[in-house]
Amino acid sequence: MENKDIRRANLGRLINEYGTIRALADVVDTAPNYISEIKNGVRDMGHKLARKIEERTGKQSGWLDQLQEDDMSSDDVIVASSIDELAEKIGELETEKLHSLIAKALELHGRKKAT
């Protein structure tokens, strides 16, 4: 999962916590449509905005950049330092997990192409 995807997921958490995009935008002092565009993948969240959101919502610096515990299990994390190493590790997955990973990747790719 890329950092922009982690930030987007955590932004969704904050929107849920504050109830609406407008409520979060008011706290952060940012236009609601800008927050909405980030949430919907139209824009990516930059470093300065990420730190501003964390500061204004009382989250520790870097919180937006970290997977939260319910986003992953140790079985869901694959760490590789190269494409070849990643391919090797993916090739070792059980068939069901491999199919799930491929389906998720295709879903994300389809969303990316649509934007």
UniProtKB/TrEMBL annotation:
InterPro entries the record matches: Lambda_DNA-bd_dom_sf
Protein known as: Uncharacterized protein
SUPFAM superfamilies: lambda repressor-like DNA-binding domains (SSF47413)
UniProt GO MF annotations: DNA binding
Superkingdom to which the source organism belongs: Bacteria
